Structure formats: structure tokens, C-alpha cells
Amino acid sequence: MAKQETGNRPGIGSPSLILIFIVMCLVTFGMLSLSTAKSEWDLAERNAASVTEYYRADREGEEFYRLVSEAAKEARQEGADINEVRRLLGQKLGEYYIPERGAAMTQIAMDRSQALLIEVFPSLKEGQAPVISQWKVIQTEDFEIYDSMPVWTGGEGEE
After folding, report:
1. Stated pTM of the model
2. How far apart are CA 137 and CA 118, in angstroms?
3. I need a labelling partner for 61 at 20 to 30 A (CA). Which of 5, 32, 35, 125 fits?
């Protein structure tokens, strides 16, 4: 019979398994890092688009404010009394002017079913600036909540 050697041979099984495990961990963490970076990049792009859209609408709102201010100034110069100034404001501002409230109002459309709502009270007296009562972003469409998935509410016997 042949004699078997029982000497100290270097075992390559355990170090190979540990090395494979380490490489798999590094690859997994690398993929997770790439996925996180992509998600954050997409979020930053959406945020930038949203901010750009808001400032576009805000710029149009400033133009609306200037329009109301100039219309009020012209109406004060042309009108003799307050009722005449209000009538002239209605003519100059058209559909923007709401005589019942004595205010000019507009909605400037934005992305994602939003609009910038602006309400301005024109000054009827000389030397006063128009007063902004509302300048806010509103939803123009109703948001529908997805509720087709049955959710346990805590009651017994519910499935």
C-alpha cells in the first residue's frame, strides 16, 4: 500500500471562500451605492425642475402685480371719485378684476396640476401700493388616493 502523506499542506478552500464572500460583499455595496446615487440624482433633477417652474410662475406673478399697479395708477388719474376709479379698474383689468371683492385675481398654471394663485387689492388712494392678500401654490386637480389594497385597520376578524 502506498503511504499517504499527512503533512501540513496549505488549505486553499477556506481562504478562497472568504475571498469570494468579501468580493460579493463589495460588489453588493457598490451596486447599492450606485442605486442610491441614481435615486438622489433623479430627486435633485425633479427638485430643480420644480423650483424652476415655481420661479417662472413667480415672474409672471410679478408682471401681474405690475399690471394691477399700473392700472390702479391710471384709474386714479382718470377717475374723479372712488366709484369711477373702481369702474375704470374693471375696464382696465378685464376678467382679472372682481368688483364684489374689489380685488384682482389670477391663477398661473404650473406643472403637476398646480397653479400659483395671486390676489391683489389695488390701491384706490394716491401714494399707496397694491396689497397682496394671496400668493400661494394650489392644486388644480383633486388628488385621488389609491385605496384598492385591503389594509388591516386593527379590528379583529378583518382580513
Report:
1. 0.70
2. 9
3. 125
